[in-house]
């Protein structure tokens, strides 16, 4: 049976990427050796790293004033690294959910933090639109897509100070004005590749201002001077990420994937809004195109719904353990077909039980 | 042509491990999904993580007073994390080469460091045997195997203070008194698996003594309380590491691999010592069983030697760029056959040019 993979992360990857990644584990570039057992200083791998870094910038339409790195530790390590590299006097944060809160907690261990807006008052079901950005803060930090709560920034803050963004769950999913950001980071495991690498993109002129003597591994400047290979990089995760970015590019780039993602999200939310059994949990203008959160109105028939999901091969639709309900994760590699299978099940379910 | 892979790292992995790892990228445990695109909170992956942590302790013969974690960032991040978690007043380090020096430099950013011995005076060609361990230091740090210079600790310091060891390049290669160590860490990419995960094994009673408010990602205690899954772990690297540890266990455990490694090292060093064209670069009692460093006495015939290596399918024998010469990396998965192919080439070369 075909499985429709709605996993919130690690999330679905393109079939072609998986096939090529698997091949590389046996024989990389017809070298007779596995990608896993060659030197990261070999010409073959250095080219992978270079290509990955260059594709990341190309998909974000960034120029030579930006650098892209592939590091380790996930967004969670960036919650520490971003303030360590940028926070001198104070930083401004906007709290839109779990991950934003984690970022704030970690930044507070480094320096002064101003939380200038929060959507916690309505359980993180919206994105704050009213806030004043302190012009004396070192940067403003936001979380572009909130995987757990299912909200997404549609228009980004117009900030006179450097804008820092955790884009882990919607990187490369839509056209964004990347050059309005000074630092973007993203764990790979939703839209970019397997778990184990983190994309870090920054404007070079923001570095070197804190006066801190940084640990080498946590120093953006050192990592970029070492071409993202200060120590052995997570070779396989970088390779699979490179393949995924190449897949986006080959199929039509960000314009293509954004259009597809919009169709998927529209198909899904139309069903949620028209189906009497379900309701969305998020204020409409802030609905995420990546993670559509919804609940069953009548939980008495929950088991029936879950049985039908299972029969249709739908996997990973459960909401995050902290909020419950359902979450339709529609990452780049999820085909429209899977959305249609889901909405058909939702409709059939309503026909039976509404 | 069969390639004989002497890469110093990422190093050779068992063929069976590569085959199973490649299969998992297409279909993991007959789930119809790739290992790369399932939740790390799924029962299937939680079992992988549990199994990996338990195998690590089993191969090291450690009990319930120890914990094993699979983190990210390589040994280079441990150079920072070890002092961050353990250094309160001062720490003692022994400098046996490049990586030890890096560890010292990073520890100095955290607190006071005493370098109690160094082999730098003779270009790191031996392991210091005379030193006094300060009993008031928080720990003593050593590097069990020096990949670049080709030396290895044969007997470990008898320390009354906690002993910390970077075992990146000889973990699981020989029987060691692991319970004499309070903290062992090892980047996976030599003897344990692909690049992208780091084994961290520690005695639980050493934690919580510095009073530091640690960043979550850098806190051993938090990582262990979260079962090594505080954030998304490097799923694929952990899985392939688990397979490699299982391969050691299934084939006879550490006793088996140690015996095999000794035969390989003996075969190699016997050739170096009896062959008139070559000489070892390290004092004999300290020769590494993992990385055998040697040079050609007459560099005028270097190109001839390299041509013969290439014809025999020998890959990755070049010494580290900082020291030159050759390096025969004999990690666990390197078959004796590859050593014999190399020593045959060395003998043929001597027959022609001696």
* CATH classification, class level of the largest domain in chain A: Alpha Beta
Topology-level CATH name of the largest domain in chain A:
Aspartate Aminotransferase, domain 2
In total, how many beta strands of chain A? 14
Instruction: Count up the helices of chain A.
Output: 9
Report helical residue fraction of chain A: 25-40%
Low-confidence stretches of chain A: none
* Total number of distinct structural domains of chain A: 2
Question: On the 0-100 scale, what is the average pLDDT of chain A?
Answer: 97
The largest interface is: A-B, 67 and 67 residues
Name the helix and strand elements of chain A from N-terminus to C-terminus, one letter apiece: EHHEHEHEEEEEEEHHHEEHEEH
Q: What does this molecule look like?
A:
Two copies of one chain form a homodimer. Chain A is of the alpha/beta class and 354 residues long. Chain A folds into two domains: 15-251, Aspartate Aminotransferase, domain 2 (3-Layer(aba) Sandwich); 253-353, Aspartate Aminotransferase, domain 1 (Alpha-Beta Complex), CATH 3.90.1150.10. The first copy, chain A, is built from nine helices and 14 strands. Chain A has helices spanning 15-26, 43-59, 74-86, 98-108, 220-225, 235-251, 253-274, 302-311, 336-353; strands at 4-5, 66-71, 90-95, 112-118, 140-143, 145-146, 151-152, 163-166, 183-187, 198-203, 278-280, 291-296, 314-315, 326-329. In chain A, the strands form four sheets. In chain A, strands 2-10-9-8-5-3-4 form a seven-stranded mixed sheet, with helices on both faces. A three-stranded antiparallel sheet of chain A has the order 11-12-14, covered by helices on one side. In chain A, helix 3 (74-86) packs across helix 4 and helix 6 crosses helix 7. The longest helix of chain A has 22 residues, at 253-274. Chain A is globular and about 65 Å long. The interface between A and B is large, with 67 and 67 residues.
């Amino acid at each position: 049976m075909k499985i429709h993979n709605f996993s919130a992360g690690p999330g679905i990857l393109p079939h072609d990427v998986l096939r090529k990644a698997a091949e590389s584990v046996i024989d990389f570039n017809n070298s007779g050796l596995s990608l896993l057992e060659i030197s990261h200083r070999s010409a073959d791998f250095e080219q992978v790293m270079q290509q990955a870094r260059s594709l990341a910038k190309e998909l974000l339409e960034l120029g030579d004033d930006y650098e892209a790195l592939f590091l380790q530790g996930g967004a969670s390590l960036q919650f520490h690294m971003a303030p360590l590299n940028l926070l001198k006097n104070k930083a401004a944060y906007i709290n839109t959910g779990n991950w934003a809160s984690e970022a704030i907690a970690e930044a507070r261990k480094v320096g002064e933090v101003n939380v200038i807006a929060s959507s916690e008052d309505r359980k993180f079901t919206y994105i704050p639109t009213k806030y004043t950005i302190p012009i004396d803060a070192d940067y403003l930090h936001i979380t572009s897509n909130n995987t757990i709560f299912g909200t997404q920034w549609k228009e980004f803050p117009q900030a006179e100070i450097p804008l820092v963004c955790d884009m882990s769950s919607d990187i490369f999913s839509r056209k964004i004005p990347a050059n309005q950001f000074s630092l973007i980071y993203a764990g790979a495991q939703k839209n970019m590749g397997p778990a184990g690498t983190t994309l870090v993109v920054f404007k070079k002129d923001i570095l070197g201002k804190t006066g801190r003597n940084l640990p080498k591994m946590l120093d953006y400047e050192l990592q970029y001077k070492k071409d993202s290979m200060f120590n052995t990089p997570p070779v396989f995760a970088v390779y699979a990420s490179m393949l995924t970015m190449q897949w986006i590019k080959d199929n039509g780039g960000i314009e293509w994937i954004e259009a597809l993602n919009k169709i998927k999200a529209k198909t899904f939310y139309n069903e949620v809004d028209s189906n009497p059994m379900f309701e969305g949990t998020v204020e409409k203008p802030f609905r995420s195109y990546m993670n559509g959160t919804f609940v069953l109105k009548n939980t008495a028939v929950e088991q029936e719904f879950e049985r039908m999901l299972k029969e249709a091969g739908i996997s990973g639709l459960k909401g995050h353990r902290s909020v419950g309900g359902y979450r339709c994760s529609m990452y780049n590699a999820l085909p429209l077909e899977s959305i249609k299978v889901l909405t058909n099940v939702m409709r059939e379910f309503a026909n039976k039980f509404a």
